[in-house]
Amino acid sequence: ATGYTPDEVLLAEVVQVNVDPYSRTLLINRGNVEGVYEGQAALDANGLLGQVVRSGVFTSTVALITDSTQAIPVMSVRSGLHVLAYGTGQGNGLTIPFLEPTANLREGDVLVTSGLGQRFPRGYPVARVTDVDISPGDAFAVVSAAPSSALDRGRHVLVVERAPELPTAGSP
């Protein structure tokens, strides 16, 4: 339990998996008619799957978190460190570039959506760190992570309806 208000979701079925090796996308059977819009997060039973990047009348395209166009604000559950996880566009991996060698991130750390940038709801599993390579003399560590979600292996997707933002102090 994350302690957050549950998000409204819409169940969709995967109707096509893009086989282009440089584009990691799915086509789902929900679109504008059901209220799907660009920017919505897509989940499977294990965590964040991706984001709606194109919404048609009856179908929508979801870019998987491993697509090279995706950058996900994440947080380490163990240390609270906030970083950006990027899709590599190849295989099922994520990378965290430009991480200082002294940053508190280690192999096995679970990464969840941080909610920063308000693109993805907070607290959904994204990945587990699989490798932190710190070579002497390098300015940055090389960090790899494996997605929590099944990516292109599942048949169903939950499209998340973002909860309305709470008013901040001093707002009308």
| SSE string | EEEEEEEEEEEE
Shape: elongated
Identify low-pLDDT runs.
1-5
Q: Give a quick account of the main beta sheet: strands, pairing sense, barrel closure.
A: 6 strands, antiparallel, barrel
Number of helices: 0
Strand order of the largest sheet: 1-2-5-4-3-12
Radius of gyration, in Å, reads: 17 Å
Structural class per helix/strand content? mainly beta
Question: What is the CA–CA distance across the termini?
Answer: 32 Å
Report strand %: 35-45%
Helix content: under 10%
Mean pLDDT: 87
According to DSSP, the number of beta strands is 12
Briefly characterize the structure.
The chain is mainly beta.
Helix and strand layout, with pairings?
Elements: E1 8-17, E2 25-28, E3 41-44, E4 47-55, E5 60-64, E6 71-76, E7 82-87, E8 94-99, E9 110-113, E10 125-133, E11 141-147, E12 156-161
Antiparallel strand pairs: 1-2, 1-12, 2-5, 3-4, 3-12, 4-5, 6-7, 6-9, 7-8, 8-11, 9-10, 10-11
Task: Provide an overview of this structure.
With 172 residues, the chain is an all-beta fold. The chain is built from no helices and twelve strands. The chain has strands at 8-17, 25-28, 41-44, 47-55, 60-64, 71-76, 82-87, 94-99, 110-113, 125-133, 141-147, 156-161. It is elongated, with a radius of gyration of 17 Å. The model is unreliable at 1-5 (pLDDT under 50).
Fill in the keyword field for this structure:
mainly beta; six-stranded antiparallel beta barrel; 0% helix
